[in-house]
UniProtKB/TrEMBL annotation, chains A, B:
CDD domains, A to Z: HTH_ARSR (cd00090)
This protein's encoding gene: arsR_2
Keyword tags: DNA-binding, Transcription, Transcription regulation
InterPro entries associated with the record: ArsR-like_HTH (IPR011991), ArsR_HTH (IPR018334), HTH_ArsR_DNA-bd_dom (IPR001845), HTH_MetalResp_TranReg (IPR051081), WH-like_DNA-bd_sf (IPR036388), WH_DNA-bd_sf (IPR036390)
Organism of derivation: Microbispora corallina
UniProt keyword annotation of DNA-binding present: yes
HTH arsR-type domain sequence ranges: 29-125
Protein name stated in the entry: Transcriptional regulator
Keyword Transmembrane annotated: no
Transmembrane segments: none
């Protein structure tokens, strides 16, 4: 099953309603949903990858070439490339070669799935705390 | 530096404004922020822990004892306890012993920090896609 075929979890944040409307709060994740979501969190469970994601998202036009990213780290280009590959394989970023450089941008759909899991639960818990 | 002393990243979601107002989108994470956030994502980068978090949040009253959780998994109680310990050590859940059982509930502040990182970026990217 490709990532594109996965159902998007309802991203609606309605903190005015009962807490049970938020996905994490009263709709326990199924085993298969958890198995599909965990690798996304694993991919960003690393300081370098979190910063890469942040730098790409922040770069002019929402995309960055590896030449824009290496200067922010005290790491070798192959190490940066490894981390970019992990993010790409998880589906968090996409890339395209243009001439000498490969350009990267964030895949908003995948980020939305992660946000749909955490965001409503966080909002509901804040509203009921 | 304790988790309590960390500044909360602005959780404001304003998709009507320029994409640069969302934390992940135009405010690249600092190295120290990334180092502090990565372990939170690592703690939930596991299907069992994602489901535990979901089951706890969904349980009546927002808290659950380990006796409420073991039935959902084909795992031994010590394995469940190990995963609960990882979540607790990351600060995602808190716990308290009452008589025979230990009860667990979600720490909304920590979830809010994760949501503040992903949510606004997701919303801004969706708005600019």
């Amino acid at each position: 099953m490709s990532k594109q075929e996965l159902p998007i979890i309802d991203a609606g944040v309605d903190v005015s309603g009962p807490a049970c409307c938020a996905p994490l709060v009263c709709e326990p994740l199924s085993d298969s949903e958890a198995v599909e979501l965990a690798p996304l969190f694993k991919a960003i469970a690393d300081p370098v990858r979190l910063r890469l994601l942040s730098l790409i998202a922040c770069h002019e036009g929402g995309e960055a070439c590896v030449c824009d990213l290496t200067g922010a780290f005290d790491l070798t280009p192959p190490t940066i490339s490894h981390h970019l590959k992990v993010l790409r394989q998880a589906g968090l970023i996409d890339s395209e070669r243009r001439g000498t450089w490969v350009y990267y941008w964030i895949n908003p759909g995948v980020l939305a799935r992660m946000s749909a899991l955490i965001g409503p639960a966080s909002a509901a818990l804040a509203g009921t705390a």
